[in-house]
Amino acid sequence: MYQRKLDRDIRCPLEYGLEVFGGKWNSRIICVLAAKKVLRYSELRKEMGNITDAVLATALKDLIANEIIVRKSYDEIPPRVEYSLTEKGASVVPILQSICQWAGIFYKEDSEHMMVHCQKCDYR
User: Fold this and answer.
1) Where do the H-state alpha helices sit in 13-113?
2) Reduced to 3 states, what is the DSSP secondary structure of residue 114?
3) Between the CA of residue 28 and those of 4, 11, 36, 67, 96, what are the distances in Å?
4) End-to-end distance of the chain based on CA atoms, in angstroms?
5) What is the spatial distance between Cα 116 and Cα 111, in angstroms, rounded to a whole number?
6) Average pLDDT for runs of 10 along the chain of length 124
7) pTM, entire model
8) Residues 88, 106 contacting (CB under 8 angstroms)
């Protein structure tokens, strides 16, 4: 697993928020889970598109550690694991939608590569 060279230097709530849900993959995972509610790992990876297993696993671990998503494993054969948003994670969705609305004013659309969930977002 990736080890940071320096300790996190978070000095304000905004920096904490950007650390938790900022970045390319964390916000995508949150949006996909907000739309789909509960997904298994393979379903989530398929929804994410071009993410590697290592990056997805790391992002999921970070989101679980920050209590944004919950991982529920079932004692079955074959093993089944499902991911969903926590209450804290669901509370981030309106914030991400607000950012999306703001960005929609300035972002030049590339509808060919747009995620399916972004097409459903009412950011225009």
Assistant:
1) 13-21, 24-36, 41-48, 53-65, 87-106
2) coil
3) 22, 25, 12, 16, 10
4) 39
5) 10
6) 62 82 88 94 91 93 94 91 96 90 76 59 53
7) 0.80
8) no
